[in-house]
Amino acid sequence: MKKRAILIVLDSAGIGELPDAADFGDAGSNTFGNIYKERGRLDIPNMTRLGIGNIEGGGLKKAEEPIIGAYGKCAERTHAKDTTCGHWEMAGLALDEPFKTYPNGFPREFLDEFEKRIGRGTIGNCVASGTQIIMDLGDEHVKTGKPIVYTSADSVFQVAAHEEVIPLDELYSICKTAREMLVGDNLVGRVIARPFLGTSGNYNRTENRKDYALAPFKETILDALDSRGLEVVGVGKIEDIFCNKGVTTVDHTKNNQTGIAATKRFIGSGQGSFLFINLVDFDMLFGHRNNVEGYAEALESFDRELPEIMAGMKEGDLLMITADHGCDPTTPSTDHSREYIPLLVYGAHVKKGVNLGIRSTFADIGATIYDYLTGEKWREGTSFLSEIWED
What φ, ψ does residue 233 adopt, rounded to 5°? Predict the structure, then answer.
């Protein structure tokens, strides 16, 4: 029996505020629960059968039939709520010090040097919603050719530019320059290219976004599995988040539809030992835009795909469904929210109805995957394999 682990990250689908959420301005956040509460319904019968409604404090409807998976939730040990920290921690690397944030924008001396290197001035340099700032500054950008620089409550340096004003290749080059500069005292977790198209009053971001993350400071389970000759498949923005370290096969899908299609294809082919999938639309299209209905429909759409995903699994496949942080669309904030992440586990040999409780770190996910694929203990986190697996 070939062993294979499949980890699907529903980007930003948190399931309730962490105890320190108020420190981040996120008291009361619950992405899953508040969508259900505000909308009055959330048609996710397959995740419900896996146990998501039985997760403590999740605020969702409990399963009315036997649960077919194991379930629980994980706290983030890293004092952060961004994509990079979330994914690194679930891959077995929690950070003692989170990346820097810039609530007042980036230092003028940094921007002066940045503008000198890219040969253009910049506009913006503030905390902003990505969709709103292109509406506010898009006309000025088109007129002047100056890229829009902005950040958020997360550790990001984002550069927005109209594709017909600054071609994609140049925008990507600009972001690479920023990535080279944003280290040391000006360290940020990610630089993100945010291209858009359209005309005045009708600007829209395209799917040509590109992330420039830092390489992980220490070995993750991806590196360790790769060093053993095991194939690590990254779907979506996984390669960007890990700077390609430990990722041996890549399908850089740009939305949920293509990400789910790639997931089905890899699962059905039997390829890979570890499939690491990020589905970005929940966060990018709906969480950051406070679009409750769109977020709910995206969750329901994923749930409808689950039976086919599960049916394609082989006997030795271990499936986990989780998130990397929250992004509650029901709150005034358009930023990520400091939340627990759900944990659903399924497979032919996974015990049914096991409550995994509250895990103290996302790293328990990586520890379990590493334990399953190698039989060895990972340096961070606690494997829950013995709690769920039966031969």
Answer: -100, 125
